[in-house]
Amino acid sequence: KAGVTQTPRYLIKTRGQQVTLSCSPISGHRSVSWYQQTPGQGLQFLFEYFSETQRNKGNFPGRFSGRQFSNSRSEMNVSTLELGDSALYLCASSTKSGGNTGELFFGEGSRLTVL
Amino acid sequence: AQSVSQHNHHVILSEAASLELGCNYSYGGTVNLFWYVQYPGQHLQLLLKYFSGDPLVKGIKGFEAEFIKSKFSFNLRKPSVQWSDTAEYFCAVAQPPNFGNEKLTFGTGTRLTIIP
Lengths: 115, 116
Hints:
Oligomer: heterodimer
Low-confidence stretches of chain A: none
Order of helices and strands of chain A: EEEEEEEEEEE
Mean pLDDT of chain A: 91
Largest sheet of chain A: 7 strands, mixed
Mean pLDDT of chain B: 91
C-alpha cells in the first residue's frame, strides 16, 4: 500500500511569505504528526492530529499551524516566514486510535528554503 | 520536559565490526523507547521499540537494544555491521499517556558510516 505522501517535496520562499505543506497519510491511518528537522536542532515535534482534532502541540510559535481533514489528510501552514524556518518538514502517520502502537510511518518530507 | 542524548555524532566502522550507539533520556517516569533509522535518500523508519517486558529487544536487520532503567539508557547494538548499515540513527522517547504516544522526543542522531 502507498506510504505517506508529502507535497511539495521542495520549495523556496522569501522572508515574510507564507507556506502550506500537505500530507496524505497511509490509508486507514487516522493520526498525523508533523516534525521539523534541522541540522542544529534535529527532529522537533510540531503537532499531532487525530480525527481532525489537534491532540498535542510542540514548542513552536503561533506562526506554525495545522489542520486535519475528515479524510485524515493534513496540512501545515507557516506564516511570516523567517530564515530560521528553513528545514525539512516531516509528516508521519500511525494507526493509533487510542492504544499505543509506537510506530510512526514517515513521509520523505518537504524541504523548505527561506531566502 | 524530557530530553534525549545521543553522544556519538558520527561513527565510522569497518565492515564486520561490532556497533554500539549510546542513547540516554532524562524523563524519570514510564517511557516508551524507539530507534529509528534513515538510510541515504530514504525516509525515517522504525528499527525497534521497547514498551515493557524483556529489556533486550530485537529489531530488523540484526539490530538489538537494551533498556537499562537505572541508567536511563537504551543503547543500540549490532554484533557485525555491514556496508548497508550506513545511515543516520535516531533514538526517541515517548511518554505513554492515556491516548497514545505520537509525540516523540528525538535525539540529534548519530551518523554511521561503514567502510567496506
